[in-house]
Amino acid sequence: MPELPEVEVTRRGLARCLEGQVLVGATIRNAQLRYPVPEQLADTAPNLVLALVRRAKYLIIETSRAAIIIHLGMSGTLRYLSVATAPSRHDHVDLHLAQGGCVRYRDPRRFGAWLWVERPDAEAVNWWESDERLRQLGPEPFDPALTAECWYRATRGKKQEVKRWLMDGRAVVGAGNIYAAESLFLAGIDPRRSVGSMGRVRYARLLEALRRVLDQAIEAGGSTLRDFVDDRGEMGYFQHSHHVYGRAGKPCLLCATELRQIRQGQRTTVFCPVCQR
Ligand SMILES: [Zn+2]
């Protein structure tokens, strides 16, 4: 499943192809995604692309007429191609550009989503967040307004386990299972610890660690950027070396203690019982 770093790398790759270009319609081969693909996409009236923005795992194509909001779901990918490239079975949507070329959406499992939010008369900052799915999202991990102090204050008196709290999307977006486990290891925090028991120093370490692991994953993904500008291969998970994720039973890289695996909610967590307190 694409996580925040994969979506950010998609944004960086496609922004170069899309920003400043004019959309002139779409081919919708299969409208049955998570929600029906909006028919407005196929409208051939010229529509200037102003920016490609990411919010959590949503990509927002801000145009002169609307915001086209895309969620990649479990298996969605976007690539910039020549229109002459023959579509395959799972290529459900093409966005056509005036200068030739198209952005093609492939999604074998069809859990992805395309939304259309009309540009309002009175513009606000990030006006597309009028869509409730975006409005409900927690803070972005790299937003400077998100601080350890925010987390500290929001968790006084709460008993939730820190790993589950980090992953539930309200404290921050983008901490999927891999990134939550890795950042707790780097911060030296036991994933079972209750959020109310953590002081400002632990929250500062955790936020810094989360930003570092996401940043490293985005940097690692930069090397796969060519997948978005031609038709070679499909984007998979980025290949990172993990400290704890996927390493249950193996020795901790810091202290050589055997890494433990537990279940938290529906998810597995791997951690070091010595380094993480
Ligand atoms: Zn250790």
What is the compact description of this entry?
By secondary structure, this protein is an alpha+beta fold. Helix content is 23%, strand content 22%. The strands form 2 sheets. It has an 8-stranded antiparallel beta sheet with strand order 5-7-6-1-2-3-4-8. Strands 9-10 form a two-stranded antiparallel sheet.
Structural class: alpha+beta
What would the CATH topology of the largest domain be? N-terminal domain of MutM-like DNA repair proteins
Number of helices: 6
Gross morphology: elongated
What is the β-strand count? 10
Mean pLDDT: 92
Q: What is the count of structural domains?
A: 2
How much strand? 15-25%
Characteristic key phrases:
single chain, 277 residues, alpha+beta, N-terminal domain of MutM-like DNA repair proteins, Helicase, Ruva Protein, domain 3, 2 domains, 8-stranded antiparallel β-sheet, two-stranded antiparallel ribbon, 6 helices, elongated, binds zinc ion
Please describe what this structure looks like.
The chain has 277 residues and is of the alpha+beta class. The chain has helices spanning 4-18, 132-135, 148-154, 162-167, 177-187, 200-221; strands at residues 22-28, 47-55, 58-63, 66-71, 77-81, 91-97, 102-106, 113-118, 260-264, 267-271. The strands form two sheets. The chain has an eight-stranded antiparallel sheet. Helix content is 23%, strand content 22%. The protein is elongated, with a radius of gyration of 20 Å. It folds into two domains: 4-135, N-terminal domain of MutM-like DNA repair proteins, CATH 3.20.190; 148-271, Orthogonal Bundle (Helicase, Ruva Protein, domain 3), CATH 1.10.8. The longest helix is centred in the last third of the chain and has 22 residues, at 200-221. Strand 3 and strand 4 form a beta hairpin. The protein is built from six helices and ten strands, in the order H-E-E-E-E-E-E-E-E-H-H-H-H-H-E-E. Zinc ion is lined by residues 252, 254-255, 257, 272, 274-275.
